[in-house]
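Because discrete structure vocabularies remain unfamiliar, we first show an illustrative case, written as a sequence plus integers encoding its fold.
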Amino acid sequence: MVKSTELLAHGLRDKHEIVNVEVKQLNGFACASFSEGEDYSDEHAEHHYILFVQKGGINIQMSHLNNEEMTISCGEMIFIPRNGSYIFTSLDETKVLFFAFAAPVMRKELKLFNYLSSRAFKGEELLPVLPMDENVKIFVDMVMMQLENDRIKNSEICRSWNNIFFVMLVTYYERKSVTSFIRPVLSKELDFKAFVENNYLQVNGNAVRLANLSGFTLKTFHRRFRQEFGMSAKEWLNERMCKRILQLASAEDSTVTSIAAEIGVSTERLCQLTRANFSCTPSALIEKRRASRS
């Protein structure tokens, strides 16, 4: 089991954690129990958090909402953005699942992310609390059971859970509710590098599409990209695409169709990419990679 002091502060009782750290990002889940009247606070949240209250309830104050006190009951979830502070008091014997993430994994939800990013700065009402849909409750129960049983050792599961949760938001809630719930994720304070690393696969190498997802203007996006990565978005995306194609072409069971499907392009587009970057067809590239293994 991978432990991380980044996910939760020291001192929580009955704590279970599993985290995945990738490209200096963190996706993690932890469950903790609190007795009646017990306080928990974080003066500077290093990641975005979603708290799922599975048992009992909490009174919480958050800096980004002017520290107005809110009551979160069993069966509800609350979003807490990065860099804010919060404090909560347990109203009863309470159990909470903490979900920490740098950026949402929504690679297969391009339409939704376009929708969210286009509305992120429109001043829509911010509603950080949502009831847990029955399907979300099942998901939370499953995650907590896995944590408490301490059976899963592979921390990559966190990335899958991250993706599953945001797909469930898309599926079981109205888009306006989702926008209001996670709007701070899409704010100007977005961790730019984390956003790019988490979402570049869904744009099929199209820098303009990635810029549209970010919510920035094209000029700002390209300036920020060069500052963070030291090259243009087009160059970086092409480099990543080529590395991925080489990796897939090296697999024993790779085919032209399977590689195209994996990177989300047509076989014709794959052929264009391999000719431009490797001076050969996809079939020839596969043969070369197989020969290099012999």
About this structure: Residues 1-5 have pLDDT under 50 and may be disordered. The chain is about 45% helix and 20% strand. The CA atoms of residues 24 and 194 lie 8 Å apart. Strands lie at 16-22, 25-34, 39-42, 48-55, 57-62, 70-73, 76-80, 86-90, 94-101, 129-131.
